[in-house]
């Protein structure tokens, strides 16, 4: 007998996500569902995902309509279940609340792990004690101040879409959501209040002189629109500065050749240079912890582990899945994790846990042939490492007798972009030089710089 009603809540999807929007319902009131059966699809600023039934039962009521934005933890629907199932759901919720870390996707074997390097002494005294353990939920208050640091109002995805459709400036809209966040209802109220005002000029009016040019109007996808807003917000928030260093990748090439011979014989995938760059970056971040951090406008939050985001190019646009606790992985383990996450991203099978809590990001335009790699910081982080293509160039080399000559070497020009509000240029440059040293002296036997 089903006599207990439990909520199907908007799931928690990371420290910077406070709400989500219902895209589509796949069940209606009165429908029976099995445990883990698809109920609805939701969208957030980070990723689109599916919501599953927490137990077998009957949908008693849909609380949120399609297109409605719901705060994290608030009910999307109510599910009638048995008393035993309700108790099991409550126990699962309590267990999830107690869990504050998620295992990394690749789950490499123990021999592939390396001991995390010990951080160098801090270069500046933080305003507060450094965190003992990475806890994104506990850090939510620090990362979500009442107002955006650049003065731009916070808003839901649907509110931004409706505002764009009606030409509403979100800067003049008063939000009624959490922390003053602008919601769809707020934008619609602004649209109604503006009734009778002159309409915005049509696109054709804005492009005078192009009347006789053939054209096609291509509306942006939801993900592309959110990405565009994220990039603008990052440029308006952080003081971007980039420092570069040319790296001789000869040692990496030798290590890759040796490792790939063994891997291919075992039926494993070939390693790319990116895995070695990521390994070197993790090692360097232990020595330069201010770059593995978040600035909330008041203080620098140094994270206690490296959750490495890897930008992946997909048909839907750029997405950045995260390798959790990457500082403890070897180059082969990182390479395997990158391949797995890239596959999930391109097949649209990423979950919210795959994209949350990143602390440092690598952008890899070299995978499509770019020779320069300055990137936009992935908020709320303070730095991003760009990796262009490895190209063969004539360089000055020194032989064993100390004589200089011109040689041909594989070279990559690494670009570290950082937030100059909290990171000094010399500090960032020392970090990228350290990454260069690690790559040019990589130990292929340990597969770790």
Number of strands: 19
Fraction of residues in β-strands: 15-25%
The main pleated sheet reads as:
7 strands, mixed
Q: Which regions are unreliable across 5 or more consecutive residues at pLDDT < 50?
A: 99-112, 119-134, 136-151
Distance between the termini: 61 Å
Return the structural class: alpha+beta
Helices and strands, in order, run as EEEEEEEEHHHHHHEHHEEEEEEHHEEEEH
Q: What is the CATH superfamily of the largest domain?
A: Chloramphenicol acetyltransferase-like domain
- Total count of domains: 3
How many helices? The count is: 11
Write structural notes for this entry.
This protein is an alpha+beta fold and 449 residues long. It has 3 domains: 2-98, OB fold (Dihydrolipoamide Acetyltransferase, E2P), CATH 2.40.50; 127-137 and 239-440, Chloramphenicol Acetyltransferase, CATH 3.30.559.10; 144-219, Irregular (Dihydrolipoamide Transferase). The chain contains 11 helices and 19 strands. The chain has helices at residues 83-98, 140-143, 157-166, 184-193, 203-206, 222-237, 250-265, 273-287, 331-346, 352-355, 425-440; strands at residues 2-9, 19-25, 32-33, 38-43, 48-52, 57-62, 69-71, 75-82, 240-248, 293-295, 300-302, 308-310, 312-314, 317-319, 322-323, 360-363, 383-386, 391-398, 404-419. The strands form 5 sheets. Strands 9, 12, 15, 16, 17, 18 and 19 form a 7-stranded mixed beta sheet that branches. It has a 4-stranded antiparallel beta sheet with strand order 1-8-6-3. Strand 13 (312-314) and strand 14 form a beta hairpin. Helix 3 (157-166) packs parallel to helix 4 and helix 8 (273-287) crosses helix 11 (425-440). The protein is globular, with a radius of gyration of 25 Å. Residues 99-112, 119-134 and 136-151 have low confidence and may be disordered.
């Amino acid at each position: 007998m089903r006599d207990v009603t439990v909520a199907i809540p908007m799931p928690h999807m990371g420290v910077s996500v406070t709400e989500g929007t219902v895209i589509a319902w796949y069940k209606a009131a009165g429908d029976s569902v099995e445990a883990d059966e698809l109920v609805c699809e939701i969208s957030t600023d980070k990723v689109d995902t599916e919501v599953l039934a927490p137990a077998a039962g009957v949908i008693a009521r849909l609380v949120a309509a399609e297109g409605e934005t719901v705060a994290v933890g608030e009910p999307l629907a109510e599910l009638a279940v048995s008393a035993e199932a309700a108790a099991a759901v409550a126990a699962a919720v309590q267990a999830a609340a107690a869990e504050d870390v998620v295992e990394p996707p690749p789950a490499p074997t123990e021999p592939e792990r390396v001991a995390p390097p010990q951080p160098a002494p801090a270069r500046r005294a933080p305003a507060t004690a450094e965190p003992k353990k990475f806890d994104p939920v506990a850090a939510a208050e620090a990362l979500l101040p009442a107002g955006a640091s650049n003065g731009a109002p916070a808003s839901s995805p649907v509110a931004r879409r409706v505002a764009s459709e009606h030409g509403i400036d979100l800067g003049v809209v008063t939000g009624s959501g959490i922390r003053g966040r602008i919601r769809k209802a707020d934008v619609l109220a602004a649209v109604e209040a503006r009734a009778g005002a002159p309409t915005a000029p049509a696109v054709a009016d804005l492009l005078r002189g192009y009347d006789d040019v053939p054209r096609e109007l291509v509306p942006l996808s939801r993900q592309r629109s959110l990405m565009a807003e994220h990039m603008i917000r990052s440029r308006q928030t952080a003081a971007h500065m980039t420092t570069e260093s040319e790296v001789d990748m000869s040692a990496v090439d030798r290590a890759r050749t040796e490792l790939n011979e063994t891997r291919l014989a075992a039926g494993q995938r070939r390693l790319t240079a990116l895995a070695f760059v990521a390994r070197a970056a993790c090692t360097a971040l232990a020595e330069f912890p201010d770059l593995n951090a978040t600035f909330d406008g008041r203080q620098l939050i140094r994270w206690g582990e490296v959750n490495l985001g890897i930008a992946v190019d997909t048909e839907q646009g750029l997405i950045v899945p995260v390798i959790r606790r990457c500082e403890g992985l070897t180059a082969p383990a990182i390479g395997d994790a990158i391949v797995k996450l890239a596959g999930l991203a391109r097949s649209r099978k990423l979950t919210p846990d795959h994209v949350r809590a990143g602390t440092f990001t690598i952008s890899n335009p070299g995978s499509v042939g770019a020779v320069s790699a300055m990137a936009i910081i992935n908020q709320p982080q303070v730095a991003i490492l760009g990796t262009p293509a490895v190209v063969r160039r004539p360089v000055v080399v020194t032989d064993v007798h100390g004589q200089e000559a011109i040689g041909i070497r594989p070279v990559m020009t690494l670009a570290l972009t950082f937030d100059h509000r909290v990171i000094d240029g010399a500090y960032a440059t020392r970090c990228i030089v350290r990454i260069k040293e690690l790559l040019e002296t990589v130990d292929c036997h340990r597969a770790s710089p």
